[in-house]
Amino acid sequence: MGFIKNFLMNAGMMVTIAYVANIIYKYALIRFSARIKYISSIFLLIFAGWASCFFGFRLSENVIFDLRFLPLIVAAAVYSRPIVIMLVGIGIGLTRLTFSIDTAAFVGVLNLTILGAVCAVLNIWMRNSAVKLSIKGIVTVLVVNMVNAFDIAVLGVVPTRVYVFEIMPFTLPMSILMSGVFVLILRDFHMEQQRMLQLERANELLYQQTEELQQTQFVLEERAKQLLLVSQYKSEFLANMSHELRTPLNSIINLAQMMADKEDQRTAEETVLYSEMIYRSGLDLLELINDVLDLSKVEAGKLDITYEEVNLRELLEGLQMHFEIMARKKGIAFYTEQEEDIPPTMASDAQRIQQILRNLLANAFKFTQKGSVTLHLYLYRCAEDHSEWIVFSVQDTGIGIPPSQHQLIFEAFEQADSSITRRYGGTGLGLSISRDLANMLGGYLHMDSTENEGSTFALYLPLLHMDRDEPSSPTL
To answer: 285-297, pLDDT tens digit by residue?
Structure first.
């Protein structure tokens, strides 16, 4: 009867220790590192073995019967490293020396060391076996209890005959039963812990998904604002475009009507004047239409690039002749500069280069009321990949561009300050088309501008020959 009461008390004490350990883990160790938690669990199992021995059944002054091997069964089921299980067994065995130092104590140390090795082997088997978890638990409980009984019978201080025929018939069934009950309790406890962990992970996942949804909502709101802004810019662009188109069309219609009404009275000078005005209005109208068509072709990928030998000196002279007249009319200076190391030719599309530079120069003259406009041609060598680039730099002393609009001016339909286009005229598509054309030619546009001080737009084009591949863009 004493064995039964003692083993029941041992099992209840183990459950109590497990419950207290759970509370300590939740509220005391939760913020510590995984390493500290791992080491703490090892000491907790050793303490449970010591407590089992403390409340064990004392057959005599130095002989104690208890369930101190139960923490080893827990260790075999929990840990993944066999060496840790052996350390737990040795640690529990050494705690027996705190009660007495005699032959029975040393036998207890040896017994727990052997059980530690057995549980380590069982741990390896459980991790590599495909049998059911319940079968693994039953085998572990039976093997540990049988080895424990065998060790006591062979190594114990109690005579073998007395232990086998008088003590073991009571202690072995009770230890197997208590071990099985404790394993079942431990299994339910472990499953509850797993459910708690799954619930915590589900909550964390739900929290992450909530944050992702909030971020997605924020992105969608920002895109909605951008779409609304783009729609506003497009409306302003269409209004501006309609005005720009009507102006030359009205001029052509009105002048043609005046020429028809004054067919008999008009002089030769009036005819020439009207014809020049009609011609200029037609050119303005053609330029607007070309801008819109070029933009649509670039966006649709229908604009073809034809590589040929481009004479840089002729290109520069043609631009100088074209814009010299405009410079004289506005009363500003126009300079063209070319460095000495510039090669005579390069492989590119002359028509598209002229289109880009005309857009840049037209903008420079449009927004410059006094001072000068300079077209500077020089060679840029990239230090990273040793590539060479021809740079067409257009510098003016005009109104400049505020920093808040440095990115917007290159986007079609996003000319943030529509009052500029109303004041100076134009659709605002020139820079957008120029940027896309520069990219198609393998280069890019670079801008440096200060409000009320002027702007510099630089067209970077790779210095190619007809037998060379296109290099990558350099880092400025």
So the answer is: 777 677 676 666 6
Q: Which residue positions in the chain have pLDDT lower than 50?
A: 1, 414-418, 420-422, 424-425, 468-476
Return the DSSP state at 163. Answer: I
Contact 45, 75 (CB under 8 A): yes
Q: What is the per-residue pLDDT across 183-234, written as a single tens digit (0 to 9) for each?
A: 777 777 667 767 877 888 888 889 999 999 999 999 999 888 878 876 766 6
Of the candidates 320, 336, 298, 313, the residue with the CA atom closest to the CA atom of residue 437: 298
Place of tokens 């201080």: 157
Residue with tokens 């609304």: 228
**Cα atoms found within 13 Å of the Cα of residue 413, Cβ hemisphere only:** 14
85 alpha carbon, distance to own chain's centre: 42
**Region label for 426, one of left (φ > 0), alpha (ψ between -120 and 50) or beta (otherwise):** left
| Displacement of CA 76 from its chain's centroid (Å) | 41
Q: Are 10 and 66 in contact (CB under 8 A)?
A: yes
C-alpha distances in Å from residue 28, one per residue of 14, 22, 198:
20, 10, 21
Q: Which of 333, 398, 396, 328 is nearest to 369 (CA)?
A: 398
As given in the structure block, the two tokens for residue 287 are 């330029």
Structure tokens belonging to residue 321: 């002749």
- pTM, two decimals, is 0.45
Judge residue 434's burial from the number of C-beta atoms within 10 Å of its C-beta, 0-12 exposed, 13-18 middle, 19 or more buried. buried
- Beta bridge partners, 391, equal 378, 460
Joined together, the tokens standing for residue 317 give 């002279």
CA quadruple 13, 18, 20, 23: dihedral, nearest 10: -170
* Residue 69: both structure tokens together: 């091997």
Residue range 350-401, pLDDT digits in tens: 888 998 998 899 889 988 989 999 999 999 988 888 889 999 999 999 988 8
Q: Determine the Cα–Cα distance for residues 247 and 120; give it in Å rounded to an integer.
A: 94
CB 72 within 8 A of CB 112: yes
Q: How many CA atoms lie within 13 A of 101 on its CB side?
A: 1
Give 447's strand partners.
457
